[in-house]
Amino acid sequence: MTPLVLLIALSLVLGALGDVYLHNPRGSNNRNRETGTNVNNANRMYDSQNNNKGGYCWGPPMTFYEKSLLQVEWTAQHGCGTDNNNVDCDLILQYMCHPLVRDGFVTDTITEDTKDTMEVDPKTGVLVYKYGMHEPFEYFSACKKRTRNRGLFVADQGLSKTDTALRTRQENNQNNPHGFECEEERDYYPYWHPSPWKDIAVLTSNTKRCSYFKQHSQNVEGKFACSLPEYNNQDECVTNQGAWAYTEPWGLAAPECLGNAWSRDNHLGNTKTGYTASYSWVIPNLSDLGRANLNADGKTANCAFRIRYNISTSDYAGWGPVDSNLDMVDSSLNGQKSPVQQNPYVTYGTDAAGNEWKLKLALNTDQYGRTFEDRSYMFYIAQRPDGIAANHRIINLNVRGKRGNIVEAYPAVEYDFTPNELHISTGDYIHWQWTGCDTNPNYAGEGKQGTDRSNVVQMYDGRKNYPMPFADQTLFSDPSVAFDLAHLRQYDYRICKTTDEADCCKTKAQLDASGNADQDDQNCFKLNAPKAQYFNGGLVQMKNTGTYYYMSTRNNNFSNRSQKGIIIVETLLPTWGVTVTAIGATGFVGATAVAGGAYYAASHPASMLANVFAGAAV
């Protein structure tokens, strides 16, 4: 067998600063707990290629129940869309789970020598792994030894045939690891060797590629690797007495492949709908993960999510016969034969004397194709609580954004609820939950400097900025739930008897006497309690129809920033009365579309909706 020649390459992409930022779940962009404006260590976990100002600082892990719906949201700088004339874009959504997936609590990059280091977390007082890790070391070690795919087009970057898979056209330095990520796997999709990542969806500007993506996903196609990791193909492996070993596919459905939502280039903003680009992910069952990937209790799993973003150019045949009849570029066009060269001069016209005039292009061949990436912090996938049947729908309602005004927060966003506009049916459950950090820079915001906090109170309508009286609220049928979501169980609702008393909420009179109330950890009116950065309101079943408006008293600051949401609860609609919404749609359609969605799913059994509506009570 000759050396592998890639048929379709994810990293054949155009880019300069084509960053991608994950907003829900919160993307780290390689941050952890640093308090500065920029990321301390861009090599901490993975090669994002993003601006160092991006990302959200660490907050306590979230928990998502199996088969619940999570609205994944992101912004991508250089555009996307099936109808975008300037760019060819693909987004790859994946997840992985393993007991050793963790965030760590330092910003240093993990190494072979430090991968097992454990220390007491100064935040929690618990003995934990010190360094963050997603991919396991064994996977990284094999990548580090394996010869890179020598059939790939690398333009004029001058990679050697003996370079390993840690070196690619885009990352031309194999001595610059990014956690335990394999650079070659990061830059190309579908990858040809085993990967620890499971596919969720591929969102593409050209759906002609979908059959290829689905066919070669590791969800459905097994992958090979040599027992002697330096060899990347069967002939060399067997010739050198190695075993060309087969890894079974994940045994999951092929990833959903859909046309992606339009967004313009040079802009980290919304789609045409006015809402952030999004994908409704059905959290997998624990049984889909495999017992080895669960925690010891068998009821939870440590997981991470990643999104990869590429923008392709048509200046050469990067996609071959999938998109056209052109032969795809490969290693035969490397070096001086490359159709693109570094910062070339191009002739553009002649003057009256017959002299050719040239223009110089800004073209970096290690970015002329480029892949960008963001990943979530570790989160838990958990077994459903007792009494919540598999056919009961759970929708996750979270908070996105970070402290600061619009300029300070950028390229992150200011606080908001997500899904911001939620359409569901009576009987559905909402999982109210959010996390934040206490190590933001001292940007604009309410309450103690550097802290993220959110809460929920009901309003009469979306243009109000006062909550309705507590006795009038109807969003929650149980008043104790409404009280918890407003006050976040701070200090277990203990009220201080004296100003000097600790571990309790100070009264207004005590705070007035302190002289610095907004910065006081015991100011529960401003939600300053240290443990309030993470709040899990649990599952709340929506029993009554209606339109409900709500806001956060901590962050809603009229004329400065708005943190409001709307929930529309309806009875189940007939199949002919519903329009199923698409990616990037206005808000999030839950069970108001369940009847129409179930009808669509029945006629499109391979679709995302077939997964979403599997087992739904219609």
Automatic annotation (TrEMBL):
InterPro entries per record: Protein_DD3-3_O-glyco
Coiled coil regions, renumbered to chain: none
Identification of the protein by name: AMOP domain-containing protein
Entry annotated with the keyword Disulfide bond: no
Entry-linked PANTHER family: PROTEIN DD3-3
Keyword terms of this UniProt record: Signal
N-terminal signal peptide: 1-18
Region (Disordered) residue spans: 24-47
Residue ranges with Polar residues bias: 26-47
